[in-house]
């Protein structure tokens, strides 16, 4: 037997803080334009972050969920749109690293292009009629066989990072009598693929989450990564559910921290004429910051417990989804408190708090959505008492 792989080496804190500071300086411009901050992604490449969750034996850093959550949360304090694109890349490579179903050819392609070219990957799952697969249903995106060729047709909306991606794991169904569903690996530079610029949301504007259209895209056999009968997907991959939930929670917690830090600087700088001293000296703002910090302290505690249990292998996906729900609601409330307390300046596009507020509200749209997380936890609780 060979030696076990060396432990993962997380990126230095000063590297992440430097990236976040530079991202923050560009965030307003990218929010206004709605364009992906490609210079941020280039800096992530230069810092070696694209190999964060690629296995050490494959040339990556071999980091786990704790490092992913830390990186995503820190980058999100600068620009959560960049952090989200990177989070999806990290999570996909965590799956590639441990999923034995992936054909070796496909696995090598995504790993080698990530390390050599800085190629990004994301899952493309949501459709206009289907919505998110998390709520069930067969995708309209179809895999067909025609004269020995494998063809892909369909469309995927809300495709985070669209124009910056090289690879997509596309959720699709076969046209067999008994359809199988699952992931196919698609080179997003292949013929027959186009992007409709459909992402015009209120928040998280620079994620470039546009629509991919696939028209007779020919796929190699190795692209059929993981196809199963629909009922075989009912038992979700617990580790993937946990990773997604906690990464999203950490991202929006990062937004709330950025909003909190801006609020502190504003309260110190704002000196009303009638008061003659900074707003930071008023007791009501002391109480306000105490409320905000209590919410964010709760998030830190929830996340620390969640990561500890996840690392021990004792953390059900239903609880991870609840953690995402509670943490993101805390983050939203923390930003709302600041907005309500300072009035018009909070909603001015001249101030970052307005952007943070729009961004943090997107937490409620991200899977798992609140009603799904709460209903699943309730079913588990009631089943335990039967």
Keywords:
oxidoreductase, AcylCoA_DH/ox_N_sf, 386 residues, 49% helix, flavoprotein, AcylCo_DH-like_C, Butyryl-Coa Dehydrogenase, subunit A, domain 1, Butyryl-CoA Dehydrogenase, subunit A, domain 2, 10 helices, eight-stranded mixed β-sheet
What this model shows, in words?
It is a single chain. Helix content is 49%, strand content 14%. The longest helix is centred in the middle third of the chain and has 32 residues. The radius of gyration is 22 Å and the shape is globular. The protein has ten helices and eight strands.
What is the fold's blueprint, element by element?
Elements: H1 13-33, H2 38-46, H3 65-78, H4 80-98, H5 104-117, E1 121-124, E2 142-146, E3 149-159, E4 167-174, E5 181-187, E6 193-196, E7 210-219, E8 224-228, H6 238-269, H7 283-312, H8 317-342, H9 352-361, H10 370-384
Helix pairs in contact: 1-3, 3-4, 3-6, 4-6, 6-7, 6-8, 6-9, 7-8, 8-9, 8-10
């Amino acid at each position: 037997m060979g030696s076990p792989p060396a432990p993962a080496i997380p990126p230095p804190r000063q590297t992440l803080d430097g990236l976040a500071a530079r991202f923050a300086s560009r965030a307003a411009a990218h929010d206004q334009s709605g364009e992906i901050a490609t210079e941020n992604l280039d800096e992530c490449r230069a810092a070696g972050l694209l190999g964060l969750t690629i296995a050490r034996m494959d040339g990556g850093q071999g980091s786990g969920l704790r490092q992913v959550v830390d990186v995503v949360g820190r980058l999100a304090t600068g620009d959560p749109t960049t952090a989200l694109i990177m989070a999806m890349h990290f999570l996909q490579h965590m799956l590639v690293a441990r999923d034995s179903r992936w054909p070796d050819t496909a696995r090598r392609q995504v790993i080698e292009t990530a390390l050599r070219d800085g190629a990004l990957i994301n899952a493309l799952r949501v459709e206009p009629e289907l919505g998110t697969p998390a709520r069930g249903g067969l995708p309209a995106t179809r895999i067909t066989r025609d004269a020995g060729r494998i063809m892909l047709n369909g469309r995927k909306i809300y495709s985070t990072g669209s124009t910056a991606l090289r690879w997509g794991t596309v959720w699709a169904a076969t046209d067999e009598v008994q359809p199988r569903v699952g992931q196919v690996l698609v080179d997003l530079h292949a013929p027959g693929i186009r992007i409709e610029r459909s992402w015009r949301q209120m928040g998280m504007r620079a994620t470039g989450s546009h629509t991919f259209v696939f028209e007779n895209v020919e796929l190699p056999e190795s692209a059929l990564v993981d196809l199963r009968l629909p009922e075989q997907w009912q038992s979700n991959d617990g580790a993937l559910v946990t990773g997604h939930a906690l990464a999203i929670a950490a991202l929006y917690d990062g937004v709330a921290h950025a909003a909190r830090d801006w609020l502190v600087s504003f309260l110190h700088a704002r000196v009303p004429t009638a008061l003659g001293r900074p707003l930071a000296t008023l007791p009501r703002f002391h109480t306000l910051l105490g409320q905000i910090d209590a919410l964010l302290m709760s998030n830190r505690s929830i996340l620390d417990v969640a990561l500890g249990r996840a690392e021990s292998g004792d953390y059900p996906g239903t609880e991870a989804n609840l953690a995402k729900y509670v943490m993101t609601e805390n983050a939203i409330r923390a930003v709302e408190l600041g907005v309500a307390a300072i009035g018009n300046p909070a909603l001015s596009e001249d101030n970052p708090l307005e952007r943070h507020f729009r961004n943090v509200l997107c937490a409620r749209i991200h899977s798992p959505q609140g009603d799904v997380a709460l209903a699943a936890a309730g079913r588990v609780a009631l089943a335990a008492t039967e």
